[in-house]
Fold:
Amino acid sequence: MDITQKPLGLIDPNNLKADELFLADVHYEMFPDKEVKLFKKANHLVVWTSFTSLFTNNRRHNQDEFPLKSLPWFIDTIENKFWNHKPNPNSLPGEVNEVTNINGEKIGINPMRHCCAENLFGYSFWNKSRTPYIGRTPPQNWQIPRYMLEQGLMDELKRISTELGLKRYEPFK
Structure:
């Protein structure tokens, strides 16, 4: 049985608390209205999003939370186990994934054939131990197209890992 962790509480980017640190902006060209920011909150990496609801036309905020130690695991798993891997197109969902337990939280990565858009390959980085702020059904889930990782986001994640002292990646000192 998986245990759901208490939510960390939504970050207000305009009024950061003592245990919150802005790390980076992430731009999704397919969602020009969506604002995505990475934060450190206590011992977690937080993917904070702001977007306009299609149903209410109001701004909504959400965030996905991962133990900080999952960041180098994510980087290394993508580079060492997924890149250059040729998945079997007949594989069923969930057969090609990686799962680990970090600080009592069940974390995983799944490759996706339709990440953020039809026929756009990418990855779902998820935390089954945390409930989304919108929807309330685990897991929390951060979808990242592969091309974004290849075009600079992976380097940004390595820089963050190195600067936070999680794992050192070259050339980030």
User: Anything to note?
Assistant: The longest strand covers residues 44-52. The first helix runs from residue 70 to 82. The chain has a mean pLDDT of 88.
